Amino acid sequence: MNRRLLIVDDENSTRDMLCRVLARHGFETVGAATVVEALGVIERERFDGALVDLKIDVDSGLALIGPLRAANPRARIVLLTGYSSISTAVAAIKLGADDYLCKPASGAQLLAALDLDTESEVQPLPAVPERPPSVNRLAWEHIQRVLAEHDGNISATARALGMHRRTLQRKLQKRPKGE
Q: What is the pLDDT of residues 47-71, one digit of tens each?
């Protein structure tokens, strides 16, 4: 029996990509694009886990944590955000989220956060490197991960990243130097 997973993100390409990738890992996925749509789905269906974006159009994904937890007490709830801050991480955990991941999160990070077979254990924080990678380097690595997920298909990768194919090709030519 597949594990059921709710994915809430207002960006169609991100939501669809997450649904496809996680379906390959044995999840039965249901997507929602708005808080209102997600609340309707939460009322009708039960889930083993949920990936919820923090910023959903003008709403906050934090508003979904309480209803998700009430309807699915054993579900793993993971908040994803490109706007990470300590205050939102603390708020998410206090509201009942099990994990808080910054975008772009790797497939391995998502799968580890959604590990439904084990009780959550306190994991030590990874050591911060003495010289963290630059923003350009992080963007390059994210593009490379998405490119690998799409088997090197430039057009599919550009769609998943929400950019024009030529823009992606230019970015791929500008590998960060000296890192």
A: 999 999 988 888 888 999 999 999 9
